[in-house]
Amino acid sequence: MIKSTLQKIYLGFILLLLYAPIITLIVLSFNSSKTRSKWGGFSGKWYTALFQNEDIMNALYTTLTIALVSALVATLIGTMAAIGIQALNAKFRTVMMTVTNIPMLNADIVTGISLMLLFIACRAFFPKFSLGFATVLLSHITFNIPYVILSVMPKLKQTSKYTYEAALDLGASPLYAFFKVVFPDIFPGVSSGFLLAFTMSLDDFVITHFTKGAGVDTLSTKIYSEVRKGIKPEMYALSTLLFVSVLFLLILVNTAPQDNVVKKKKEVGKFKKAANIVFRRVIPAIMVIVVVAGGFFYSSLGKTNASEQVVVYNWGEYIDPEVIDMFEEETGISVIYEEFETNESMYPKVQAGAVAYDLVCPSDYMIQRMIENNLLDEINFDNVPNIKNIGEEYFKQSKSFDPENKYSIPYCWGTVGILYNKTMVDEEVDSWSILWDEKYADQILMQNSVRDAFAVALKYSGYSLNSKDLDELEEAKELLMEQKPLVQAYVVDQVRDKMINNEAAVGVIYSGEAIYTQSQNSDLVYVVPKEGSNVWIDSWVIPKNAQNKENAEEFLNFLCRADIAKKNFDYITYSTPNTAARDLIEDEELRNSTTAFPDASILNRCETFQYLGTKFDDIYNELWREIKSK
Amino acid sequence: MKNKKRLLTGPYLFWAIAFIIIPIIMIFYYGLTDADNNFTLMNLAEITTPENLKALGLSLLLSFISTVICLVLAYPLAMILSGKSVNQSSFIVLIFILPMWMNFLLRTLAWQTLLEKNGVINAVLSFLHLPQLEIINTPYAIILGMVYNFLPFMVLPIYNVLVKIDKDVINAARDLGANNIQVFTKIILPLSVPGVISGITMVFVPALTTFVISDILGGSKILLIGNVIEQEFTHSYNWHAGSGLSLVLMIFIVISMALITKYDKDGEGTAF
Amino acid sequence: MARKLIDISHISKSYGDNLVLDDLNLYINENKFLTLLGPSGCGKTTLLRILGGFETPNKGNIIFDGVDITNLAPNKRQLNTVFQKYALFTHMTIAENIAFGLKIKGKSKAYINDKIKYALKLVNLDGYENRTADQLSGGQQQRIAIARAIVNEPKVLLLDEPLGALDLKLRQDMQYELIRLKNELGITFVYVTHDQEEALTMSDTIVVMNQGYIQQIGSPEDIYNEPENAFVADFIGESNILPATMVEDKLVKILGVNFPCVDTGFGRNKPVDAVIRPEDIDLVKPGEGLLDGVVTHLIFKGVHYEMEVMANNYEWLVHSTDMFPVGTEVGIKVDPFDIQIMKKPQSEDEEAVPIEE
């Protein structure tokens, strides 16, 4: 008895470990507060919001469609293959099984990369071919087939080969014999293979991450892009719904009356048989039909008019989704929208050209790099009359990276500074030095990108943030290494949530983010340190390989409209270079805020990033890696 | 008849060549050439830079520790589960697959919420006046994430071999004089080796190559070899170096495949 | 007189509502070959597993050599089992399989090696030390399972349908092999089977079981020639089981005809069952026997002809080396000592049942 109690306790412990995060997510889905670690009261609002969030619903149906189609195809190919492999001689069987084991055992990252390399190589032969829905589907089928084969094989081994021959002997055609005799025997293997394939596809992130193209998002990739800036609570609601419906389905299938019970009691049997069919066939079938129909519905919704489109590649959370809707409605051009997290992760994607983007929004130094590497097309400003709304000074400033103002139109700008929580920091903060103050060990959030991190260290030491002096860089590296033990985490947009939630005392942050955080937590203060900092501009550019240049320009013109720029400012809270839009801001305090619109005294001590060339890029990257791997 | 059945491998054979073999060849190609398509071993040598070696070493260490913890947790669990009646066990196995329906990233992210300084666990601990648990953004959190995510891949193969052991084999050992401990060490443990091996590879390889778990639970402070490769591809855009490092990783994958073929000839220890 | 080695008293065992053994009593003498015979589900394997220590009875005791071993763990018992499906250790070589029990007992290396050699020789598999179980045929695996058990020099060897999975020829060879082993080793064999021929060939004593009860205990000859009830008669070989009335001692009325017999003590005019083995019926010319009939079926069986004779509304099964074509009128004659009289079945388990296997 003691033994069985111990067993129960142990099982309970493991289940707690497995399900604690899931319970957490379910609880979070009912949290009325938008941030993760604060309980704002019970609310079901995310569930209603979920169904209005077209992005998430789209990702959901892409995910489900890919999971379903890839599992079906994999089940078909895998089952056939299993039967065939069974009939092979031992040598070939070993070879086939070894090949089958590769995707199972290979690291996801290697599988994903290898497939990406293949697809990109394919473009040498088929220039029109690009990463997208199809490549994700192909990849998922690839890693799903082994699961099916490995589920079917054991069942096939248990099946007597004579039953098949007996059926043939009794006059059945091979196909009939297979479906009537062999298939029922291996069906449990086939169905568990299908279920596994479906689950694996649903849960995959890494392989999708490497093989997806613009506009295609599964829940996984959507979540990953949201990780940095905080998961939308609708996502929790969706996951909860998914989880609960699967749980419900499993309970149905597992507790539905079994066949042998039905046989024994004939009278009750009739009812139970009916119930059995309903539970184990009809309900799952209906769920599948709903999913498939929904998938087609949403995918048709997404591709209203494939010929008129514009492919936009922008920072995460960097546009009001309503603006896109308004544009689509007014012009009939559909916007395929994809997000990136850092300039460094955006650049290779544009350069590879696996996806033909029409409009990209990089930062200053990256634009310079793209111009130098001949990746950008000149903008036809005749198509963008609203450009008059953009303040002259911003074009002047843009000259540092776009000397002739031919390639870029400013979209947002701002400074980099320190955000601190005045309940945790007593002193007046005016210097980067606080980031090296041991008092705040494990309370400091640093930016997780090379240039931003080095900018802090270089400026703190009194150097230019575009330094090409190896000694200066070495010094900056030493500083950053020295700082590392004090750093709680290196983050990008997460600094926002963490500061709001009082997880840290000090953080390096973009001024636009600072405005938002202050609106959520009034204890937060933003300063641009006296040593100087970075002033940056994010501008729209059109890549050389754009397929819809005119649509891109039409979209640009739309974004430059004063009311639209104002709408975006309200949503993303980053400073707008659109002076006409600034005039529309009603809140006087905000309109004149030095955080949102820093004055000359602040700007004078700030520098803009410049592109330093491949050699110095490599040096910066190398130094950064040394810091990270310390 | 057999000939016709063999033809059924056709579509898969095509698929495997196109989407398994050729992509691997692509990695070899990129890994062994430089930007001008000349043959080079430089990309492989990338692994010897101190930073990469350190990342690889840390990855090996963390995945080794997680694998050991998974094994220690999973073995008794699989023993308990295999002792359950057949009807119950299929449901119990499903319980381990079920969490996968909640997205992997969300599950991992939920640990962040649980582990954070002001997180759920610390709230409970401080309510109980216990010392705070401060492991978020440290290697311990990464290990926890690995154990959490990969535990089912250890439990299921071990469970599968354990349920297949004939009760009479155990009875025979007892009959021949073995006590409980001897039955375990001389019969159950050796017979479960295929499952243990396949569990180890199913945990070790993904743990070794993960970049997501270290990103989310390590606060981007801890660089694992998976992060290095991911950055080579998506940030530095150096496919050649990335492929070269992937080739280095493939050594470990080949080792695990060899282990599997050696110890698990019949594919008994497959997870599912 | 042989010494009583195992005394099984009042053993009951049930799984849930299913009563498998009911108040069973049996003793086993030293150096005997005892067979538990019965259809599947009769409780014979359960009884064997209780002896081996893999099951504990709900009630009753097992006394082994004067010691109560009812609750003793299997590894502490001086019995060894040969399992139905051999249960060899697939991760070990043949030598390691055989050495298993000896190593646990801490025997010396030299002793173990000697024993392995000896055991392999005994089962005619010398030189197989380094093979693994899956390299052996069923018969060879069977013999290894026996070798693995006997090296431990158990006082009793329990065998659970060990020949069930083998083909006919191999089974017959192994039967002789087992008898030889038993004679050479001088240990007690408790053997479980549902094959009556196997039981008759090998046993000193047969225990016929059905539905958890012992039906009859006796030598093979006793069991065959003098079945105590319809179940035993039907289960052991083929027989004509006829409803009859005991007119008086040594006279029984079967199908309205009086047959002289040798049985006494059943009372007068009592309903009984009469058993007549098919080979004990002599076919003679019509009128020369006790009753007349017509041959309705004829099959050549090799050693003999099998015929069915319709007489007094009953199909008599007859085995004879003489052949009578279908349609021949014949007389039926039975010697008095070939008629076995039994009481009417007292319970369900004593009734004749069709043999399923």
Features:
heterotrimer; B: mainly alpha; MetI-like fold; 14 helices; 74% helix; globular; C: 357 residues; OB fold (Dihydrolipoamide Acetyltransferase, E2P); six-stranded mixed beta sheet; five-stranded antiparallel beta sheet; elongated
Account of the protein in words:
The complex is a heterotrimer of chains A (630), B (272) and C (357). Chain A is 60% helix and 10% strand. Chain A has 630 residues and is of the alpha/beta class. Chain A has three domains: 54-231, MetI-like fold; 306-412 and 538-588, Periplasmic binding protein-like II (D-Maltodextrin-Binding Protein, domain 2); 414-535 and 593-629, D-Maltodextrin-Binding Protein, domain 2 (3-Layer(aba) Sandwich). In chain A, strands 5, 6, 7, 8, 9, 10 and 12 form a seven-stranded mixed beta sheet that branches. Chain A has a three-stranded parallel beta sheet with strand order 2-1-3. In chain A, helix 14 (321-331) links the parallel strand 1 (309-315) and strand 2. In chain A, helix 4 (90-105) packs across helix 6 (133-158) and helix 18 (450-460) crosses helix 19. The longest helix of chain A has 37 residues, at 266-302. The model of chain A is unreliable at 258-269 (pLDDT under 50). By secondary structure, chain B is mainly alpha-helical. Chain B has one domain (50-263): Orthogonal Bundle (MetI-like fold). In chain B, helix 8 (139-164) runs antiparallel to helix 11 (193-209). Chain B is globular, with a radius of gyration of 22 Å. In chain B, 54% of the residues are buried. With 357 residues, chain C is α+β, with helices and mostly antiparallel strands. Chain C has two domains: 4-225, Rossmann fold; 238-345, OB fold (Dihydrolipoamide Acetyltransferase, E2P). Chain C has eight helices and 20 strands. The two termini of chain C are 37 Å apart.
